[in-house]
Amino acid sequence: MAGDRAPADELVARTVDKESFEPWDDDVESGDPLGFVDTVAYPDRLEQARGHAGTTEAVVTGEARLRGRTIVVIAGEFAFLAGTMGVATAERVIRALERAANLRAPVLAMPISGGTRMQEGSVAFVQMGAVAAAVRRFRQTGLTYLTYLRDPTTGGVLASWGALGQVRFAEPGALIALTGPRVIEQVTGDPFPDEVLRAEHLRDRGIVDDVVAPEDLADRVDRVLAATQDPSEPVDYGAEPLDLPEDAVVDGWDAVQRSRRLDRPGYRELASVCATDVTPLRGDGAGNDDPGCVTALMRLCGVGVVAVAHDRAPGERGAQLGAAGYRKARRAFALAAELGLPVVTVIDTAGAAMTPEDESGGLAGEIAGCLADLAAVEVPTLSLLLGEGSGGGAIAFLPTDRVVAAEHAWLGPIAPEGASSILYRTTERAPELARTQATSSTDLRHHGIVDVVIPDRPSRDEEGEMFGLRVAATAARELRTLLDQPPGPRLRARDRRWRTLAR
């Protein structure tokens, strides 16, 4: 069901702290650049719109507080000429973004619009470029730009300030499209399926990150800001033991077998213990999603991070990601860099997807892109090798500042059966190769690939909550260390580590 098109002032009042909203730029109003007349002159239509909407333009902007934090709000008003964007509308949006940057305040943008204002024609149309540039400048400050797409959000508003949110929420049932179905049908003569333009379908395709009811919006925005804006305070879990002794030896084939147990703990067990204020990030930015790759804003062990994880669903082995999964990860790495948040990756994969669609969709190139992006991102990075670490699917998440491994996790260029097939044309020598290719956690530590090995047990039943607690305690310790390091020396150490490994 589509939204109720609540007036801008009503939605703002429901979302921000009581009586905290202070409006800006009410005197920035539309002129008549074209002398446009249809049945009524444009100035008369503007006057009617002011009376109908109770606002002086199609957006309301201002400063407010949300759960005590200062934020800047940009809210569309549909009752004002269907929320269309004219020159003055664009000016209000740009000014709000510039003032937000000066205040060092995050922005909550809530567009609702039929698109570009036809009465202002091309001079309104080209404002899209100025508004999009203003959003980009604001995002370059490292502050949070969050959008809540209402019903409808279309045309030039969607394709400028609406679609550029770092996190994109949508109102239930909202029509979100460059061109609405009625216009498409009238122009092309062909009916267009309305449901593919609705918020729920777009969430499933990863175009929006979630569908959020208006009454839940304040909680969800608060969650995002807790992860992206609040100071990090690493939690001391105090779980013991944290590190496997230096003289311990893990059998490679035993590790492979244990890592494949369908009841083995993984990312979900870790998140249930130490992740708070979680906001899932859906999609690769191009209309594709891969549920096997979890990306999210969260506070992990008390630290605001961007998490990128292979998701071991209950009763399944580690995820096998396709090209969309690695594009999704790259979107998350870029967002972490933009917001200045650490990246934490979780490796638990039986290998990359092996389908014709993924190979033809550039799978190898996306893995290469992940490697390059993660190796170069300037924020602190931590990798948690929790289970299977097979091939390119695993290494895409590996080249970080620090690498922590579970005792019975492993890493290799391909599953041992595959290595045996390549070398001996049979899979029967897989156990031998698991032991001789330095795949076990202790071998990886010996060669400098892994920094810390955490004791584990093979199953959820045997571990209970302790595995997650031990990983959380170690992750908190590592994040605390990374946050305390100056960026320059940390980045040089990362480059040196991976450049000189095993040489």
From TrEMBL:
<comment type="subunit">
    <text>Acetyl-CoA carboxylase is a heterotetramer composed of biotin carboxyl carrier protein (AccB), biotin carboxylase (AccC) and two subunits of ACCase subunit beta/alpha.</text>
</comment>
<feature type="domain" description="CoA carboxyltransferase N-terminal">
    <location>
        <begin position="1"/>
        <end position="243"/>
    </location>
</feature>
<protein>
    <recommendedName>
        <fullName>Acetyl-coenzyme A carboxylase carboxyl transferase subunits beta/alpha</fullName>
        <ecNumber>2.1.3.15</ecNumber>
    </recommendedName>
</protein>
<dbReference type="GO" id="GO:0003989">
    <property type="term" value="F:acetyl-CoA carboxylase activity"/>
</dbReference>
<dbReference type="InterPro" id="IPR000438">
    <property type="entry name" value="Acetyl_CoA_COase_Trfase_b_su"/>
</dbReference>
<dbReference type="InterPro" id="IPR034733">
    <property type="entry name" value="AcCoA_carboxyl_beta"/>
</dbReference>
<keyword id="KW-0067">ATP-binding</keyword>
<comment type="function">
    <text>Component of the acetyl coenzyme A carboxylase (ACC) complex. Biotin carboxylase (BC) catalyzes the carboxylation of biotin on its carrier protein (BCCP) and then the CO(2) group is transferred by the transcarboxylase to acetyl-CoA to form malonyl-CoA.</text>
</comment>
<comment type="similarity">
    <text>In the C-terminal section; belongs to the AccA family.</text>
</comment>
<dbReference type="GO" id="GO:0016743">
    <property type="term" value="F:carboxyl- or carbamoyltransferase activity"/>
</dbReference>
<dbReference type="InterPro" id="IPR029045">
    <property type="entry name" value="ClpP/crotonase-like_dom_sf"/>
</dbReference>
<dbReference type="Pfam" id="PF01039">
    <property type="entry name" value="Carboxyl_trans"/>
</dbReference>
<keyword id="KW-0443">Lipid metabolism</keyword>
<keyword id="KW-0808">Transferase</keyword>
<comment type="similarity">
    <text>In the N-terminal section; belongs to the AccD/PCCB family.</text>
</comment>
<dbReference type="GO" id="GO:2001295">
    <property type="term" value="P:malonyl-CoA biosynthetic process"/>
</dbReference>
<keyword id="KW-0444">Lipid biosynthesis</keyword>
<keyword id="KW-0547">Nucleotide-binding</keyword>
<dbReference type="InterPro" id="IPR011763">
    <property type="entry name" value="COA_CT_C"/>
</dbReference>
<dbReference type="GO" id="GO:0006633">
    <property type="term" value="P:fatty acid biosynthetic process"/>
</dbReference>
<feature type="domain" description="CoA carboxyltransferase C-terminal">
    <location>
        <begin position="241"/>
        <end position="481"/>
    </location>
</feature>
<keyword id="KW-0276">Fatty acid metabolism</keyword>
<dbReference type="GO" id="GO:0005524">
    <property type="term" value="F:ATP binding"/>
</dbReference>
<dbReference type="GO" id="GO:0009317">
    <property type="term" value="C:acetyl-CoA carboxylase complex"/>
</dbReference>
<dbReference type="InterPro" id="IPR001095">
    <property type="entry name" value="Acetyl_CoA_COase_a_su"/>
</dbReference>
<dbReference type="InterPro" id="IPR011762">
    <property type="entry name" value="COA_CT_N"/>
</dbReference>
<keyword id="KW-0275">Fatty acid biosynthesis</keyword>
<dbReference type="Pfam" id="PF03255">
    <property type="entry name" value="ACCA"/>
</dbReference>
